[in-house]
Amino acid sequence: MGELSKLPNIGKVVEGQLNEVGINTVDDLIDIGSKEAWLKIKEIDDSACINRLMALEGAIQNIRWHDLSEDDKNNLKEFYNNFNMD
Fold first, then answer.
1. Dist CA 84 CA 20 (whole Å)
2. pLDDT of 12-55, one tens digit each?
3. Which of 1, 29, 37, 40 would be 21's cystine partner, CB 3.0–4.6 Å?
């Protein structure tokens, strides 16, 4: 396993997906952000759900996604719901 799997919420499967879409380092993930990273993963894995989106944000913040602030969770839910309405 590589650098990304050392982050909270990132296992070898998600790390592999991140690598597949060109996100190979922690800095890459931070620079692109959770929403854009999730969109890229969604292009290769239609089963990518809101939990994966929250996991990516938690990884960026270096916390378990369950510990994200309510504001962050609500923002991500709104993004996810808007994406899935299109």
1. 23
2. 999 999 999 999 999 999 999 999 999 999 999 999 999 999 99
3. 40
Structure tokens at 58: 């938690």
Tell me which residue of 47, 45, 58 sits closest to 19, measured CA to CA.
Answer: 45
Stated pTM of the model: 0.94
Write the DSSP symbol of residue 7: S
- The single-letter code of the amino acid at 10 is I
Q: Rounded distance, CA 20 to CA 31, Å?
A: 17
